[in-house]
Specification:
Blueprint (H helix, E strand, L loop, with lengths): L2 H7 L8 E3 L13 H11 L3 E5 L2 E7 L5 H11 L4 E5 L4 E10 L4 E6 L9 H6 L1 H5 L10 H17 L8 H19 L12 H7 L3 H15 L7 E4 L2 E4 H4 L2 H12 L25 H19 L6 H10 L1 H7 L8 E3 L6 H17 L7 H18 E5 L2 H17 L19 E3 L9 H5 L3 E7 L14 H13 L10 H8 L4 E10 L1 H4 L10 H7 L2 E8 L4 H4 L11 E8 L3 H6 L1 E6 L4 H6 L9 E5 H6 L3 H7 L2 H13 L5
Parallel strand pairs: 3-4, 9-10, 9-12, 10-11, 12-13, 14-16
Antiparallel strand pairs: 1-2, 2-3, 4-5, 5-6, 7-8, 13-15, 14-15, 16-17
Length: 648
Amino acid sequence: MQLKSLLEELNLSDKDGLFFYDDLDNEKTSFLSIRIKEIFSEKIKPDAFFCINNEPLILFFEKKRDLEKLERQIWNLNQSPAIFIHDDNQWLIKNGFKFLESKKGLDTLTSSKDLKDFEYFELITGHSWKKYQKEFEQKNRVDFYLLKNIEEARSVLTNPELGNLHPKVANSLLGRVIFIRYLIDRNVELNKYHIKGKEDFYQLLSNHEETYKFFQQVKEDFNGNLFPLKYKLNDIEINEDEKVNVNHLSIISSLLRGGKIHSDSNIEPSLFEIYDFSIIPIEFVSNVYEKFIGVDKQADSGAYYTPLFLVDYIQKETVSKYFLDNPNEYNCKVLDPACGSGIFLVETLRQIISQYTKQYPVNVDNEVEYNQYKDKLKSLLQNNIYGIDKDENAISVAIFSLYITLLDNLKPRSIVGFKFPILENTNFFVADFFDTNNTYNTELKKHHFQFILGNPPWKTKGHPKEKQLFEKYIENRKKLENSNLEIENREIAEAFLVRVSDFNFDESGLIITSKVLYKKRKKKEKKGVFRKYFLNHFLVRQVVELSSVRHQIFNNSNDSAVAPATIIFYKKENNTEKLRKNIVKHISLKPNIFFETFKLMVIEKYDIKDVAQKFFIDEDWIWKVLVYGNILDYYFIKRLKDKYSSIR
């Protein structure tokens, strides 16, 4: 059966979600992320693909190709669960999320006898995905294995009885090694380092002196803030090569070769040999950051990684819309005030570079023009991307992620010798966002940001008894404004919501805990004080309430008790009449098989309500009604509240 006949049998051939390889070059597939389009067009090259909610859930391959390589790339992509591959006799249906090392290929999802499971109606109603839901479990996916391998290696490197490395040294060593593997996987010419492939690099690691000569040369060649070889630990400057020995390098070598990281380990051998770092999504870097800062420190700071699907949604509502409204523009300044691993900033930079190359296509064969393009890439980063974080590790990983994004937009032959721009203390600052005396305040107030985006910490419990910097900031602001501003229950996310207004921006889009919207204080007379202040000083464009899917959102996080989340888009506004008349788009996402299995944000029309901001100001209880209810529920409860003092 040929592809055309297969698509007809599945009733997909005339459906809007079906696209072909040639569609990657036109506007039909503009909804796909830049990263997916690049990987589809340059590496995986599906003959056809079917999208649900703009996500490519099924890939079709009819033409002959290297199946072992293809299936490894699909697993590394971690995006498409159902893969149809023609093997001359029949269609094989593979699980894009499960790779079997023993067979060097994807696991079989089902036989071609079960084609009816993938008919159009079965797909869009979710019946197909429900039937095979167990096959798509997180524990089979590339990011799960990769993080497990890196976590194991870091644990051995920092274990007092095994590696005894300081965590900062271990982080830098692992990050640098992943960077070099990325260069190898991109087929970057590393002949000047006498490295022609992975095996040469592994051999090099057996020689401590030569390894650190190589690391030093890479550092000099790429410049920037890329995993320094010298840094301060407890105010003492140290050289990494004096702390890392042959034993540590052998642990790294075992990790990379795909063996057991340590002989006493109970964990299965590393799968590094089959990872492709030219394909693995940037979300991986966020997860690595989560592992780098560790569970204890993560809980202490209230910082958790941001799932990519939430980043994508916020990007579509902000940066993507901005470029649609301003097609001749390619600059878009974005600040993340608690940037973590920089995932919002990475995706922003991808869009900026894509917008620029649309307007100014690059001739890669013209050396002068291509060198100008390389310089332009650096300036696009330096002129648009800014971040703050208290954690030095976070800033290092964010800068690393952005450097990789620059390299993703260069041809492999032009990568060696590409000098990264210095970003620390110009674009990125290791600081507390509530430190109003820090030098970054002066620097950042010089700019007008199109957007301030991020996922600031959520934390009420566990703060030290003494007043924290964010609480002192709120107290000072309250005095200066002579306002009734108060933070409820020591929730730091509330402080972030108002602190951003000290900077110049068009709109802010932040992920916060939903409790900010409807949690009550113990003192009844002061309930909703923060919300009243916020709604009378900021115009809210959209609220996306995620309480009902809270456990599915952060289920890969280290957090064992996840708070409900909300995305809020808003801007500064002091005109009371404008605020009260403003229409807030309130979206309350509900659980469904697509979200549970693939994290697809399928928003039904009954999840959306348009509500005037005055209702939120006057009747604070409406926030909780709209999580599960609609406008009729609001009027019903209002009637009860007006007529009766209590349910009794």
